[in-house]
Design brief:
alpha/beta; Alpha/beta knot; Trp Operon Repressor, Chain A; five-stranded parallel β-sheet; elongated; binds S-adenosyl-L-homocysteine; 255 residues; single chain
């Protein structure tokens, strides 16, 4: 897999993608990364990539020509990339999209800046992704988020092949179960007894219940599509109902 970015701030990627799991994965050849500078596809002395919007209004827009020339040029080199643009108007990025993208051979992420892009540039996109309902100053963070979520799924990236299996949103569609490390007792809070028992079957059953409970409490919207037995779903719905009535804490692990 090779991930490439096209942006006016190519230098922001390396510090993040050079460390920890992703840095190791890159050095091990699990994926490759190249940051392209959009200004390399400008032809004026100032290397201009933006211009004022037709019709007036504040701010500047990214001009279409450097974007078209860059994507055309990069697409002509080697395997045709799957081209991803970023915009708050795009489709919401989630784990399922990450899994789909992890099966591509070559990904090209095109990052906006300023007030966004000339609308015609989106003709270059195979898809447009949004991180969520808020506005960032640029697409670079969005690209980093997507690259991180996608590349950690690649075979060999996490070292322990199993670590991506039980995670939140993994195939069962549940949040991850609660986890603990030493000490077994801390500031009056005790680790559930069963986790200290060494009984693998009981631990597995407890984890399944924990995942269901947490999902019902914090993300009841996931219950309908989660992979649950009828009995589990009924229980989850009961917990979610109690949470809605304020009988359980509903706002996430830290609340
Ligand atoms: N004026 C635009 C926002 C432009 S923000 C609007 O109101 O829709 C500048 C760039 O940041 C965008 O082109 C996009 O690449 C990136 N960006 C901003 N918010 C984002 C989000 N929620 N998800 C993904 N990319 C985002």
């Amino acid at each position: 897999m090779i991930c490439e970015t096209l942006s006016v701030f190519p230098e922001v990627f390396e510090p993040y993608l050079g460390v920890s799991v992703l840095g190791r994965a890159r050095r091990a050849g699990v994926f490759d990364f190249v940051a392209h500078d959009l200004r390399d596809w400008t032809h004026d002395r100032h290397r201009t990539v933006d211009d004022a919007p037709f019709g007036g209004g504040q701010g500047m827009l990214m001009k279409p020509e450097p974007l078209f020339e860059a994507v055309d040029d990069l697409s002509a080199r080697g395997t045709r990339p799957h081209v991803v643009f970023f915009s708050p108007c795009g489709r919401r990025f989630d784990q399922r999209v990450a899994e789909r993208l992890s099966r591509e051979e070559r990904l090209l992420f095109v990052c906006g800046r300023y007030e966004g892009m000339d609308e015609r540039a989106y003709a270059l996109a195979d898809e447009v992704l949004s991180l969520g309902d808020y506005v960032l100053t640029g697409g670079e963070l969005a690209a980093l988020v997507v690259i991180d979520a996608v590349c950690r799924l690649l075979p060999g990236a996490l070292g322990d092949e199993m670590s991506a299996v039980d995670e939140s949103f993994s195939p069962a569609g549940l949040l991850e179960y609660a986890q603990y490390t030493r000490p077994a007792s801390y500031r009056g809070m005790d680790v559930p007894e069963v986790l200290l028992s060494g009984d693998h079957a009981r631990v597995a059953a407890w984890r399944r219940q924990s995942a269901i409970e947490r999902t019902a409490l914090w993300r009841p919207d996931l219950i309908d599509t989660a992979d649950l037995t009828d009995e589990e779903r009924a229980r989850a719905q009961k917990i979610a109902l109690r949470a809605r009535r304020g009988e359980e804490r509903p706002d996430g692990p830290a609340s």
